[in-house]
């Protein structure tokens, strides 16, 4: 079970998004066309199959615009949803519902899309022991929510930012003067609670790294045969992470090599938006 986020974790984001959309003059269309006392019942309806994620964060847009609106959730984050499923109902004054519609749908469609694709990929590697994880390739400002959506979909999270783990990549190695120098400097600087991971491009680099006893190795752009050999060389001495060239078509073969983690940047930067409509009920 994925624990929900606290409103304090997304309130600033939602306020910023609403302020961006309302601008300096407010919702000109709604204010001009809709009487101030008009009421409405709006339904969030899924257009296709997937996984719900980010519902509370999306609905918070309406709470900020009008705390008197009545909000009913019909599903919860993590639920699989079929086409036509009503995720939530919002009732009350029509103006704030219309003004908050786009902010809520933008966020909900984004997060449901990430969770749905994560679930699809996770289903493909069931039984292998590998886990899907996301990266820092997130939409600026949305990282906490996008990584949450990955968890909701059955995946895990890589580091959240530059300050919660050490990940030494190829450019770091060049700038530091080599693998051993980079690892030794990182070990002196990082606290005892900080994990150290190093990216390697080939098995020769991996052989050198094994002697340095780091926590994890990122096996970059290796084919399944090479990944399998890398896992054999590591022999459980550190976490193995496969990254690069991972697609829905290749992910099962990669998982079957025995790697611990499979990281996918496109899971949070290129996933298709989940289609959700906000439909006013006609009475």
From TrEMBL:
Pathway where it operates: Cofactor biosynthesis; NAD(+) biosynthesis; nicotinate D-ribonucleotide from quinolinate: step 1/1
Segments forming domain Quinolinate phosphoribosyl transferase N-terminal: 27-112
InterPro entries: Aldolase_TIM, NadC, NadC/ModD, Nicotinate_pribotase-like_C, Quinolinate_PRibosylTase_N_sf, Quinolinate_PRibosylTrfase_C, Quinolinate_PRibosylTrfase_N
Keyword Acetylation: no
Sorted UniProt keywords: Glycosyltransferase, Pyridine nucleotide biosynthesis, Transferase
Domain Quinolinate phosphoribosyl transferase C-terminal residue range list: 114-279
Function: Involved in the catabolism of quinolinic acid (QA).
Protein name as annotated: Probable nicotinate-nucleotide pyrophosphorylase [carboxylating]
Species of provenance: Niveispirillum cyanobacteriorum
């Amino acid at each position: 079970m994925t624990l929900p986020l606290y409103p304090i974790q997304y309130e600033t984001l939602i306020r910023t998004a609403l302020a961006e959309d309302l601008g300096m003059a407010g919702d000109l269309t709604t204010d001009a066309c809709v009487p101030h006392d008009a009421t409405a019942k709006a339904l969030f309806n899924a257009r296709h199959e997937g996984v719900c994620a980010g519902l509370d964060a999306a609905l918070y847009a309406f709470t900020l615009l009008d705390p008197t609106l009545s909000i009913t959730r019909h599903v919860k984050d993590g639920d699989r949803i079929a086409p036509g499923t009503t995720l939530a109902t919002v009732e009350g004054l029509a103006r704030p519902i219309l003004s908050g519609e786009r902010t809520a749908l933008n966020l909900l469609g984004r997060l449901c899309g990430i969770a749905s694709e994560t679930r699809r990929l996770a289903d493909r590697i069931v039984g292998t022991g590998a886990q899907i994880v996301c990266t820092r390739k997130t939409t600026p400002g949305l990282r906490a929510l996008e990584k949450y959506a990955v968890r909701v979909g059955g995946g895990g999270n890589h580091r959240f930012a530059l300050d919660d783990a050490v990940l030494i990549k190829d450019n770091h190695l060049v700038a530091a003067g080599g693998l051993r120098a980079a690892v030794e400097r990182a070990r002196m600087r990082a606290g005892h609670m900080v994990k150290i991971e190093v990216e390697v491009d080939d098995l020769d680099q991996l052989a050198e790294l094994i002697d340095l006893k780091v926590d994890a190795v990122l096996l970059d752009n290796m084919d399944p045969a090479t990944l399998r050999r890398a896992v054999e060389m590591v022999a459980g001495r550190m976490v193995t992470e496969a990254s690069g060239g991972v697609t829905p078509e290749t992910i099962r073969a990669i998982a079957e090599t025995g790697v611990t983690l499979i990281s996918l940047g496109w899971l949070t930067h290129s996933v298709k938006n989940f289609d959700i409509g906000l439909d006013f009920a006609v009475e």
